[in-house]
């Protein structure tokens, strides 16, 4: 067995590839035991498994435990000495780590942070100062003289800044410069703490500011503060910064804190920071977390901060993946509604919706509920047995679209292949075409998939290059030309396969009445009209089906993409009994086709379609977007065309290449893709609002306009 060579990732793309976890099982500074059990619970739980599943090369390096534990009620100086000793040992362990190791410290109470950040400061001292983002409900800036509670875990930040008892301030390593430190999420403090930090000039983003401005904006400003005069920075997270309704398993919970998901999303920005050199998470109480949700959040927080960024992920994809795609330079991590977020937390408006598959937006709650509920009951049995979801889906599709029979499969390509097989067998068994003589007519510029059979119908040279010989029995006619269709029909013609709008061909809309005329020609010659509505169906073009614009009910209908709600591949071929009943058991099948999980999601999609009628909004918003783009009168735009929310903008390649335009738009937060080399497509989720669409139009016009103005100094190259 052979193995490929190790992946080479340049140093600037290989940050945090060796994460070393140091546990600090100390609660010496806390009011009670509990946080000292946190490191062991996380080490023996799923933390490492979760991190490795995210592509983080993490290992548990060691766990530091106190050598001396003062008895309950011991005087302050004994407790300070014990905490200082643990902190010194943590600092020593950190300075002993290999330079390429990335330290991830898990407490323990927050007093361990004295050792963490003195040790990390020592690691970077030869290059300059360390910055620190301190995420905490409290200011942790008491000294032994100002404390109200006597708890030493309220003192670490003051000690790190050089103020307090020598047992704490004397831990080896440079004190932190207050100008390089900030606090996020504070909402409980004594006046002495606030006065100390104000005197020192430390920036505090309290919880009121977080609520007012949002966690993402505050975290962005915090990064600016801690990186302004430092060579590296770290992040310390006291879990009491989180809202206790979401995370109760912490030492000193305070109401109205940061939502864990908001903090996770903000921490994604760290993936793009090569100067982020250490992470600390403290004050997890496993005895208050019987269900493990707190431990899961700890893993999520660590994963958000430490996970690989765009560069290493794309490098892995290029190295290990087949080169049959050339994705745009972004790696998406999360989607919600019409928005996408990349692995560094940047937000994009999705103007592609996965080629119309995400019509109801990302993570639609009803679709997710249908998926989760069914997944917990039954996901797959194969069609060797019946399941209780598929019959309901077949009935709904049949009734909604007016066909006797439905054959469910997975991908759109499978549905097209199913239609081709049905048409050929119908020609032989019903129409009486001689064996092996059946012909199927397709159109120039078509795109029905990439199987050997289907690319044999294609007029795109790249789709065919190197894949022949192709099956016989196919011919092509110009799209939109009904006279050419009629001229091509012979007694052996089984079917005419056509897209209602050519999507991959460049968003080509046929002349008005084209499909109606095709239907009349096919009826007269006893030829099946099969319409591919994989991209255009289910509301995309301003009608439930694009066929409806011409009042056409084809002999065969192919659906896909949106039928799976953006969650699963679901497609189907629909026809009346006269066509579909040529199939007998064993003629055609699919292990996953019609599985109960897909059927449950598709049923919910149909419910949403009937309840919300998204095609009505698509018609109105599509006209609005096309009008805005046309009236911009940009010199790089040759034409704006489409129906509903399937719109193509054809560009003049002498001014702006479509691939370049797609990258420029991506850089400005618009996710789309070029097609047919000269066209930018816009097909957002059908749930997009008018305001979101107007925002997209403004960004597109501004971005393309700027590119046009730059053309005066020479064309932009792809």
From TrEMBL:
Please give the pathway this protein is involved in: Amino-acid biosynthesis; L-proline biosynthesis; L-glutamate 5-semialdehyde from L-ornithine: step 1/1; Nitrogen metabolism; urea cycle; L-ornithine and urea from L-arginine: step 1/1
Recorded GO molecular functions are:
ornithine aminotransferase activity
| Keyword set includes Disulfide bond | no
Q: Which domain of life is it from?
A: Bacteria
Ranges in a coiled coil: none
Q: Which Pfam families match?
A: Aminotran_3, Arginase
* Keywords, sorted A to Z: Aminotransferase, Arginine metabolism, Hydrolase, Manganese, Metal-binding, Pyridoxal phosphate, Transferase
Q: Identify the EC number(s).
A: 2.6.1.13, 3.5.3.1
Q: Which cofactor does it need?
A: Mn(2+); pyridoxal 5'-phosphate
PANTHER family to which the protein is assigned, alphabetical: AMINOTRANSFERASE CLASS III, ORNITHINE AMINOTRANSFERASE, MITOCHONDRIAL
Q: Which family does it belong to?
A: Belongs to the arginase family.
User: What is this protein called in UniProt?
Assistant: Ornithine--oxo-acid aminotransferase
């Amino acid at each position: 067995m052979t193995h490929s060579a190790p992946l080479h990732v340049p140093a600037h793309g290989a940050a945090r590839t060796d994460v070393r976890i140091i546990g600090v099982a100390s609660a010496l500074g806390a009011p009670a035991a509990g946080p000292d059990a946190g490191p062991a619970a996380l080490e023996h739980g799923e933390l490492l498994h979760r991190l490795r599943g995210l592509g983080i090369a993490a290992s548990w390096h060691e766990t530091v435990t106190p050598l001396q534990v003062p008895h309950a009620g011991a005087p302050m100086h004994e407790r300070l000495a014990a905490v200082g000793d643990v902190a010194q040992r943590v600092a020593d362990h950190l300075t002993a780590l290999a330079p390429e190791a990335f330290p991830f410290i898990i407490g323990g109470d927050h007093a361990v942070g004295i050792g963490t950040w003195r040790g990390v400061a020592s690691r970077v001292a030869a290059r300059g100062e360390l910055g620190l983002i301190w995420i905490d409900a409290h200011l942790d800036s008491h000294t032994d003289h100002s404390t109200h509670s006597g708890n030493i875990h309220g003192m670490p930040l003051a000690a790190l800044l050089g103020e307090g008892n020598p047992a704490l301030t004397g831990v080896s390593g440079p004190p932190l410069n207050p100008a390089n430190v900030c606090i996020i999420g504070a909402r409980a403090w004594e006046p002495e703490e606030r006065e100390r930090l104000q005197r020192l000039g430390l920036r505090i983003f309290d919880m009121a500011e977080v609520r007012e401005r949002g966690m993402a904006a505050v975290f962005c400003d915090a990064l600016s503060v801690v990186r302004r005069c430092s060579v590296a920075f770290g992040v310390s997270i006291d879990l009491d910064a989180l809202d206790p309704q979401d995370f109760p398993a912490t030492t000193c919970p305070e109401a109205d804190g940061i939502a864990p998901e908001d903090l996770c999303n903000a921490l994604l920005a760290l993936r793009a920071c090569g100067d982020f050199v250490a992470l600390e998470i403290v004050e997890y109480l496993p005895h208050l977390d019987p269900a493990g949700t707190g431990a899961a959040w700890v893993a999520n927080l660590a994963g958000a901060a430490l996970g690989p960024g765009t560069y290493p992920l794309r490098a892995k994809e290029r190295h290990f993946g087949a080169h049959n795609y050339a994705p745009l330079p972004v790696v998406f991590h999360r989607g919600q509604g019409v928005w996408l977020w990349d692995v560094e937390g940047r937000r994009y408006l999705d103007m592609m919706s996965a080629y119309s598959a995400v019509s109801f937006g990302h993570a639609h709650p009803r679709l997710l509920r249908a998926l989760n509920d069914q997944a917990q009951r039954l996901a797959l049995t194969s069609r060797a047995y019946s399941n209780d979801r598929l019959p309901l889906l077949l009935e709904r599709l049949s009734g909604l679209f007016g066909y006797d029979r439905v054959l469910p499969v997975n991908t759109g390509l499978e549905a097209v292949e199913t239609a081709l097989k049905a048409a050929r067998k119908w020609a032989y068994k019903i129409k009486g075409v001689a064996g092996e003589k059946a012909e199927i007519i397709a159109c120039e510029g078509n795109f029905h998939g990439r199987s050997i059979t289907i690319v044999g119908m294609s007029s795109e040279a790249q789709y065919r290059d190197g894949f022949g010989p192709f099956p016989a029995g196919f011919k092509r006619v110009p799209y939109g030309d009904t006279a050419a269709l009629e001229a091509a029909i012979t007694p052996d013609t089984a079917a005419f396969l056509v897209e209602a709008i050519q999507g991959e061909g460049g968003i080509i809309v046929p002349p008005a009445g084209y499909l109606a005329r095709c239907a009349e020609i096919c009826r007269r010659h006893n030829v099946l009209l099969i319409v591919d509505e994989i991209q255009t169906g289910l509301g995309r073009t301003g009608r439930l089906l694009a066929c409806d614009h011409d009042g056409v009910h084809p002999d065969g209908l192919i659906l896909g993409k949106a039928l799976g709600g953006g969650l699963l591949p679901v497609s189907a071929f629909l026809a009346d009994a006269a066509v579909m009943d040529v199939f007998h058991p064993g003629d055609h099948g699919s292990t996953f086709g019609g599985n109960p999980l897909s059927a449950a999601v598709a049923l919910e999609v149909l419910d949403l379609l009937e309840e919300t009628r998204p095609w009505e909004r698509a018609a109105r918003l599509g006209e609005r977007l096309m009008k805005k783009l046309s009236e911009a009168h940009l010199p790089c735009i040759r034409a704006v065309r489409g129906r509903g929310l399937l719109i193509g903008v054809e560009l003049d390649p002498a001014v702006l290449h479509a691939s370049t335009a797609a990258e420029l738009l991506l850089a400005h937060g618009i996710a789309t893709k070029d097609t047919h080399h000269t066209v930018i497509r816009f097909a957002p989720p059908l749930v997009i609002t008018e305001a979101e669409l107007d925002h997209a139009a403004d960004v597109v016009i501004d971005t393309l306009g700027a590119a046009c103005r730059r053309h005066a100094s020479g064309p932009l190259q792809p």
